[in-house]
Recover the amino acids of this structure.
C-alpha cells in the first residue's frame, strides 16, 4: 500500500521488479521531473527490469492517491522460467530487441 506522494520507484536506481496497480493512480516522471504519463488500476510498470540485467530505472513513479500495488521481483520471475525453457528463449529474443531500442533512445 502506498500513500499519496509516496515514491514507488526512483529514476536511475537498480530495477529489480515489475509492479501491477490493483487500485489507485500513479504519475510517471522523467529523471528531470517532467510528467510522462499517468497510470491507473489495471496498469503495470517496471517490466523492463525483469528482462534486463543491471538495468537502471528510467523514470520516477509516484502514487497520486492511495495505491494498492502488487510487486513481482526479478528473482521470482526468473524462477518461473527455470521450468519453461522455451519461454526463456523467447524472452531472451525480446531482451535483445529492448537493448537495441534503449540504445537508440540514448
Amino acid at each position: 500500500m502506498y500513500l499519496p506522494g509516496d515514491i514507488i520507484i526512483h529514476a536511475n536506481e537498480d530495477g529489480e521488479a515489475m509492479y501491477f496497480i490493483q487500485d489507485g493512480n500513479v504519475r510517471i516522471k522523467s529523471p528531470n521531473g517532467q510528467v510522462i504519463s499517468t497510470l491507473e488500476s489495471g496498469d503495470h510498470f517496471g517490466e523492463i527490469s525483469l528482462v534486463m540485467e543491471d538495468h537502471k530505472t528510467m523514470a520516477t513513479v509516484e502514487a497520486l492517491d492511495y495505491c494498492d500495488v502488487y510487486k513481482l521481483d526479478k528473482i521470482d520471475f526468473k524462477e518461473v522460467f527455470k521450468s519453461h525453457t522455451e519461454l526463456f528463449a523467447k524472452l531472451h529474443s525480446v531482451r535483445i530487441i529492448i537493448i537495441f531500442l534503449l540504445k537508440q533512445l540514448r
In short: The chain has one domain: 7-105. The longest strand covers residues 17-23. Strands lie at 7-9, 17-23, 25-29, 35-40, 44-45, 60-63, 68-73.
